[in-house]
Write a structure and sequence with these properties.
- This protein is 66% helix and 0% strand.
- It is an all-alpha fold and 77 residues long.
- It has one domain (2-72).
- The protein is elongated, with a radius of gyration of 16 Å.
- It starts with a helix and ends in a 5-residue tail after the last helix.
Length: 77
């Protein structure tokens, strides 16, 4: 039961982390879709700051859940 919860949470956090990283890429990724191309003046500093903080928080969460799964769930069944 708890193994399934950890797995689902890790998948959701990893997908959100991938999305946050893709939105930060200035040349490729999803950034040009939302107006983040390098050819324009970038006045969306708050969005960029939010994406950086979200990336850091999601990375810490993913690492924490991975370590918690290793410690809390015994590998031998």
């Amino acid at each position: 039961m708890i193994e399934g919860i950890f797995s689902v949470v890790q998948i959701v956090v990893s997908v959100l982390l991938i999305g946050a990283i893709m939105l930060q890429a200035p040349e490729g990724g999803l950034s040009p879709v939302f107006g983040g191309g390098g050819e324009m003046y970038r006045s969306k500093r708050n969005v960029e700051k939010f994406l950086i903080i979200a990336t850091i928080v999601l990375s810490i969460l993913l690492i924490s859940f991975s370590i918690a799964q290793l410690v809390l769930i015994p590998s031998g069944r």
